[in-house]
Amino acid sequence: MSKKGFTLIELIIVIAVLAILSALAVVGYSLVTQRANERVCETNRHSMETMYHAQHALDEGLTKESFFENHEDYFDDATCPSGGLYSLEDDVFGCSVHGVISDEDEE
Ligand SMILES: [Zn+2]
Asked: What domains, with CATH codes, occur in the chain?
């Protein structure tokens, strides 16, 4: 009897290796997506901060609270990609999912 092709054990091993590789790819993809969402959220909050400082330069009486209340429609449009809601806590723009921007996050 001549031996051609793969045995069942060899096929099972190949399928198991492919399953492990695809599981690693899915985990890697979700980590990359999560990090990208964090970055977009962070950028949105930096934009709010920049917008506030630009408005504050024109009107020194402007507080962050009044700026945040007056631009609620903008903050509704600029949403966190992870579904978080933006808020103003302790004079810092924060996200209900990603928290506030801290100096440790900036590199
Ligand atoms: Zn967020």
From this structure: 8-100 (3.30.1300.80)
* pLDDT greater than 70 at residue 106: no
**Å from CA of 42 to ligand 1 middle:** 7
Q: Between these two residues, 50 and 72, which has the higher pLDDT value?
A: 50
Ligand 1 midpoint to CA 96 (Å): 6
- CA atoms 98, 105, 47, 88: torsion sign: positive
In the chain, pLDDT over 90 holds for what percent of residues? 50
Query: Residue 73 class from Cβ within 10 Å (0-12 exposed, 13-18 middle, 19+ buried)?
Result: exposed
